[in-house]
Every structure is written in structure tokens, then in C-alpha cells.
Amino acid sequence: MKIEEINCLIDAYQDGDIEKSDAIKLADVIRSGGSQSDWIMRELEIRGLIAHVFDETSPSRFVSSLMARFRAEPESEKFEQDFKNRLGEAQRSRPTHHHEEIKRAINTVGSATEADARRPSQQRSIKIWLWVILCAVIAVLVYLLSFLLNREVARLNESSRGLHVFRGNSEVVSEKNMALFAGDRLSLLGQGEVKFILQNQSQVMMLNESSLVLELKGDVLKRSAFQNLTSLFVEKGYIKTDLNGTKTPLVIWTPHAVLKMMEGQCEIRSSELSTMIKLIRGKAILSTLLGNKTRNLEGNLTFLVNDAGQIEEHRLNGESTNGK
Amino acid sequence: MSETPNRDEERAYLINAQKGQVEDFGKIVQLYQARLRAYAARFVYSNDDAVDLVQDAFIEAFQHLDRFDVDKDFGAWIRVICRNRIFNFYRSQKIRKTVSLDLIDEAIQEIVEKRGDDSDHTEERLQALKGCIEKLGTEQRELVEMRYQDQIPVKDIAEFQGKSATALSMKLMRIRDQLRVCVERTLKG
Predict the structure, then answer these.
(1) Pseudo-torsion of CA B50, B55, B60, B62, nearest 10°?
(2) Does B138 contact A320 at a Cβ distance shorter than 8 Å?
(3) Do B100 and A18 meet the contact criterion of CB atoms below 8 Å apart?
(4) Cβ-Cβ contacts under 8 Å for A142 (sequence gap 6 or more)
(5) Is the pLDDT score of A311 beyond 50?
(6) A236 - beta bridge partners?
(7) Could A8 and B34 be called an inter-chain contact, meaning their C-beta atoms sit closer than 8 Å?
């Protein structure tokens, strides 16, 4: 195998995205123990070291978290040991069958007496439980009613075989031109493209392995700047948006950032670790969830927000414009 | 990074730690943690996994500290513990990974077990590597940050930069080669 091919396979392996046939090939080369195997081990070493250079766990934080574990773990072991000792003692001093019958009889009498004494408190507890059940019923009714009164927020324009639409706790069958409501969760499994048009006429395209929720009003959107605006929560994956002459801005939020778009086109890719925003044209305001940093964005740039709340900016040709 | 260990001071900390003084063992951790984390990083890609493995190794060392001869090299001893932890880690990975990833993990584990390399230059290597990364051009550095700090998949970076994944993978390989040469040159002085 060529080194270039091996290199790509190592990347696929580290990204958890390697085909079984390629994995077998790579594993064979590693096991061969030859020069290519040495090269792979050197590659893994340098990759690990580079990742370690960027490790933000400071020495003092490492030591303090380790010390916390030290204090916690001996205690849990001591507790476990004490428990085992107590269990052992209890088993050794277990009464005979005859004694046990007497003890059971005493316990029954004792329980009956205690039950009499407990009755008023039990009644109180029943009342509390009734209130809890009543509240739960009301909550369920409100929840169901909210679905009945729900407004349509988008319409499915193009569907794909892997699309799953979840409404409440159940999945609904997706079909072209179907209405989508606030709270609907769209999940595209596998490869494909799904297009829908929001009420403010923004066009949104979901691509491979994406998942988003329409009009999910999380705490972050309770800020006055976002209230009453059309919103999407991109849980993960890749979406493209096109706002052409839309009346109201579109708010797109991800696990790391909130983007308020007034006009233009953008692409968003969100993963657990970061959100990449490619503004092709138009204007937008980007806010990070962590650290609450805000940037005014203009077209032809790519922005990356990582899970530490840092914003990096890149030109579309890959050239960087500034740091964090 | 860690402080330079003073042999007598270190011995005193170890004796106190053997008597159960956790704080003194904390000082030993401070002396060795960076070197051990760099050592683990050679075999484990994820930083979080590397940090966990090293912490586990220190905890195991503390639990068996009574067996350790304070006149011997603590660094070598903790490294052996850490290495065993790495093997266990590869074994435990089987539970949560796919078959494809398992195949490669097993092959790596076999090779790591065969390799008798316990060299202790990793802290120096790490320092040298830091310097070399700082010397990279802005574009290269940003690419390295995206890949290794933000851990963005190659395919995703490529898509956003309008390049093919293979081209980007090769670009990253060339940067790593450049860094490797720079590190060797720095270590040779």
C-alpha cells in the first residue's frame, strides 16, 4: 500500500469513519512489522503529541482533579469494605429458623403498632400524591393542547428516504408538501438531501446525517433579541440556508453558537466539538453560547466556534484572517 | 510543565506518601504528570483518554506505593503502570467501538506490546514540538488547530475549504513531517 493511502486510512480510523475492508488492510500493514508499520506508529505518535500540545488541561487542574479522585476513591473503597464486613457479621449472627419465626411475629406486631401511629402522616402523604397526580394530568393536558393549537412553521419541499420526522413522542410519516410544526424534530439518517421552506420564506436544506428541531425555544432564545423570530436548532450535521428577501430574520442555534441571519446564504456544520459557519453572502450576527462573545459577520468567510466558546475566522480559500 | 525533580526532595515526598500523605503524593504527581501525559499521548489519540489513563496510573501507583523502593526510579515505575493501563484501555475499547476500529486497535496493541521503547524524552519532545508548531505559518497552524485542537474530521475541514479529503489529508501529512523534522533538529540542539 502507498504511504499516501495509509495516511488517509489513519485519518479515517481516527475519525471513526473507516470501512471494514480498509480497516483489515490497515491492520495487516500495522501487524506486518515492516517499514510501513514503523511509519504508522511514528504517525500515531506525532499525531498524539500534537493533540497533547493543544491539551488545555493545565498541570494544576490535572493535579487538583486527581487529588479530588484520591479523596473520593479511598472513601468509596472503605465504604464498600465496611459494607462487606457488616454483611459478613449479619450472616454470621443469622438467627435459627425458630428464632426467625419469633422475630417475624414480633416484627408483625411491631409493624401493626407502627402503622397505627403512622396513619395520619400516611393520609397527608396520600393527599400530596393526589396533588402530584393532578398536576401531572394538567401538565399532560396542557402539553396535548399545545400540540392541537400548534402553528405550522414550515413546509417540506423535498424529502429523502432517510428522513424521520418526530412530533411529540411519536414519529410521523413524512411526505412532500407536508406541514411542519413548532417542536418537530427532523432527523436525516444516511446520505440524502431534504429541503423545507420556513414561514418567513427562508429555504433550508438538510444534508447527510443531520438532525434539527424547528422553533425549539431553549433558554438561549429567551433573550429579547431572539424572541418571536423563526428559529432552528441544529443538533448535528450539515445544513444550508438561503434567505432571499425574507421578512424576518432567521435564528439558527447549535450546541455552541447562535446565528441571527438577516439575509444571504450560509452553510452550517455542527458536531459535538464545534460549529463551522460558512457565510457565502449576506450578513449575520454570531454569538457564542459559552462566554457570550458576539461578532458581526459579512460574506465570504468561514467561522469556527469550538466548545470552549472561541471564534476562529477563515477566508473561504482556507487562508486565515485572524486568531481567536 | 513539570518542575525539575530534586532527588532528595522527591525521596522525602515519596516516603511521606508511603505513610499516607496524599498532599506529598500530589507533589510527586506535579513532578511527573507532564512527562507521563506526553508518554500516553504517543499511544492514545484523544486527550481526554490520555488524561484519564494517566490519572488512573497515578491512583494505582498510590495504592501500591508501599511496594515501591524509594531509592529506585519512580519515573520508570509509573511508566510501566501507565503502559499496562494503555493495554487495558485498548482491550476496553472493544466494548464501545465498531468492528472496523477494533481490528486496527488490536493491531496497534500487538505492536505496542512488541515495542520495548520506554524512552523518557517525551517531555523534551513535547516542548520542542510546541516551539515547532509556533513556527508554522498562519494557514498551516490554523489547519493543525482545526484538526488537533478542535478535532474536526478531515472530511469536514476539506468540505469547508472546498478541497478533497485526500488533498487535505496529504497537506496535514506534510505539516506533520515538517514538525517531525523540526522536533528532531531541536532535540539534537
Answers:
(1) 150
(2) yes
(3) yes
(4) none
(5) yes
(6) A211
(7) no
Which amino acid does the sequence have at A324? K
Using CB atoms, which residue from A41, A271, A320 is nearest to B139? A320
Beta strands in chain A (DSSP E): 152-158, 163-167, 170-172, 179-181, 185-188, 193-198, 203-214, 230-243, 250-253, 257-270, 274-288, 294-298, 301-306, 311-315, 320-322
The pLDDT assigned to B92 comes to 65
Which contacts (CB < 8 Å, 24+ apart) does range A54-62 have? A54/B47, A54/B145, A54/B148, A54/B149, A55/B37, A55/B41, A55/B47, A55/B50, A55/B51, A56/A308, A57/B47, A57/B51, A59/B1, A59/B2, A59/B30, A59/B33, A59/B34, A62/B29, A62/B33, A62/B37, A62/B51, A62/B54, A62/B55
The chain A residue lying nearest B111, using CA atoms, is A31
* pLDDT tier at B33, thresholds 50, 70, 90: confident
* Residue of A47, A276, A318 lying closest to B45 (CB–CB): A47
pLDDT band at A72 (very low <50, low <70, confident <90, very high): low
Which band of pLDDT confidence, cut at 50, 70 and 90, is reported for residue A57?
low
Q: CA dist B47 to B42, B76, B129, Å?
A: 11, 22, 16
Residue A259 predicted with pLDDT over 70: yes
Residue from B32, B64, B114, B148 to probe the interface with A (highest A Cβ count within 10 Å): B148
Q: What is the pLDDT of residue A80?
A: 56
Q: Quote the longest CA-to-CA distance of chain A.
A: 88
Tens digit of each residue's pLDDT (9 = 90 or more) over B116-147: 555 555 677 888 998 999 999 988 998 998 88
Average pLDDT over residues A129-135: 84
| pLDDT of B179 | 94
Answer for the pair A5, A36: CB distance below 8 angstroms, yes or no: no
Chain A residue whose CA is closest to B106: A27
Distance between CA A225 and CA A241 in Å, rounded?
Answer: 20
* A-chain residue closest to B25, CA distance: A67
Nearest-by-Cβ selection for B106 from A27, A269, A316? A27
Three-state secondary structure call for residue A166: strand
| pLDDT: which is higher, B86 or B98 | B86
| Mean pLDDT of chain A, nearest integer | 77
